[in-house]
What does this fold into?
Amino acid sequence: MTVIPYLTSALVEPNSLTALSLAGWDRLIRCARSAGLLARVHVLLDERSLVDRVPGPMVPHLTAARTVADHERRILSWKVNRIERALAGVDATCIVLKGAAYSMLDLGLARGRISPDVDILVPIASIEQVEKALQDHGWEHIKPDIYDQYFYRHWSHELPPLQHRDRGIVVDVHHAILPPTGRLRPDPEKLIAASIPLEETRFRVLAPADMVLHSAAHAFQDGDLTRGLRDLVDIDGLLRQPQRKVLE
It folds into this structure.
């Protein structure tokens, strides 16, 4: 059994890990950490009351990853709140995407998932207003190079990433979910029109089917497969998620 099957077995059938050797656990821990899924493995074991059956030397690795992921999730809510505060004077629809949306909706796949950045989608007609509001509240471009600025503004589906100069919060402001120069160009106006209000905030989230569409687009057209398995785990979690959970 190679390294990847150890991890896929952990994700598909966590009960199988109770028969894993210490050497197998060593491989699994290293592979899961590299894939950004170590905390997720802990979640799956914890949900099945199997953490006590993990070999003692491996428990600290799982526990530490879960502790970090839980902390990052709490911080994520604060990050979204700070962005909401900065956009208070902007009259534009604003949709929270990907990990931040999963967390704010308390979806099962958000447990153990780390989302360092916050991604939002706004109408292209409002993108300059949104950018200015963020800059007025302390966000600055991470990539000030003239070439990078030109590339993002003319060829990409998002602004150059912005990071708060004091808090370190990174926000990616999208006007579409795929580049306008690509063969596939989902209509952002339809995505925005079908979006759902996020309770107790000014934000919205994509409709359930559109969440799957965006996750798949990100996984297969982003160009970076470093966390490709985690992207597949996201898609799997969204497909298994009852739509009523998103709509409640």
